[in-house]
UniProtKB/TrEMBL annotation:
Subunit structure: Homotrimer.
CDD domains: KDPG_aldolase (cd00452)
Species, as recorded: Microbacterium sediminis
Entry-linked Gene3D superfamilies: Aldolase class I
Parts of the chain that traverse the membrane: none
A single MF term (Gene Ontology): lyase activity
Pathway listed: Carbohydrate acid metabolism
NCBIfam families: eda (TIGR01182)
Annotated family: Belongs to the KHG/KDPG aldolase family.
Lyase keyword on record: yes
Family matches, as InterPro entries: Aldlse_KDPG_KHG, Aldolase_TIM, KDPG/KHG_AS_2
Pfam families, per database record: Aldolase
Presence of the UniProt keyword Secreted in the record: no
Protein name: Aldolase
Length: 208
């Protein structure tokens, strides 16, 4: 059975994406997001540092940690073992969706086309990632989908920044927006991440 939309993930309107190039940045990411009032992170399982970052961030206990770029059941299993509380995927894989929902966790799979939206709905999902939104005219796609798929809500991702966050969050078909621009400041330290997190939270509050 699909997890209910009341999972804490769905309380957040901005989901920062962390792609870890240097494990030395992980603590600044966690501390910065918490200090900035945005205690949620999607850690991309790209490269060798992703799983370790999931584990280290989840061990803090003060922010909601999920795994992104989950491409296989094996990756999903490892991420959940490491403490991931939700999963995000770039595309729609029914087996991965069934595995994660079977583990009792929410999954937000990536979709782009109407066929993919309908396949995800057929798997019992109503909250989907629109990826890569920026490449495909995300806001216009969202308007087209909102007319047709009345009970589906989207998390656009790909090319979103502080400059375009408000227009995405104002769209009625959007439950959250995700992107890497907040955690991109990790090399500058926790304060830099916190400043960008705070800015995003302010934009989300103004859009509410
Ligand atoms: C994703 O995986 O969601 C995207 O790569 C995020 O895109 P961005 O880096 O352009 O924010």
């Amino acid at each position: 059975s699909a997890p209910t939309p009341e999972h804490p993930l769905f309380a957040h309107r901005v989901v920062p994406l962390a792609s870890i190039s240097d494990p030395a940045h992980v603590d600044a990411i966690g501390a910065g997001l918490v200090a900035g009032g945005l205690p949620v992170v999607e850690v991309a399982l790209r490269g060798e540092h992703g799983l370790g970052a999931v584990e280290r961030l989840a061990a803090r206990g003060d922010l909601l940690v999920g795994a992104g770029t989950v491409l296989s059941i094996d990756q999903a299993r490892r991420a959940i073992d490491a403490g991931a509380a939700f999963a995000v995927t770039p595309g729609l894989d029914a087996e991965v969706v069934r595995y994660v929902t079977g583990a009792g966790l929410p999954i937000v799979p990536g979709v782009l086309t109407p066929t993919e939206v309908q396949a995800a709905v057929g798997l019992g999902l109503r909250r989907l990632k629109l990826f890569p939104a920026g490449v495909f005219g995300g806001l216009r796609l969202l308007s087209a989908y909102a007319d047709v798929y009345r009970d589906v809500r989207f998390m656009p991702s790909g090319g979103i920044s502080a400059a375009t966050l408000a227009e995405h969050l104002a769209h009625p078909a959007v439950f959250a927006a995700s992107g890497s621009w907040i955690v991109a400041a990790a090399a500058q330290g926790a304060d830099a991440v916190a400043a960008l997190a705070r800015e995003a939270v302010g934009i989300a509050e103004a859009a509410a």
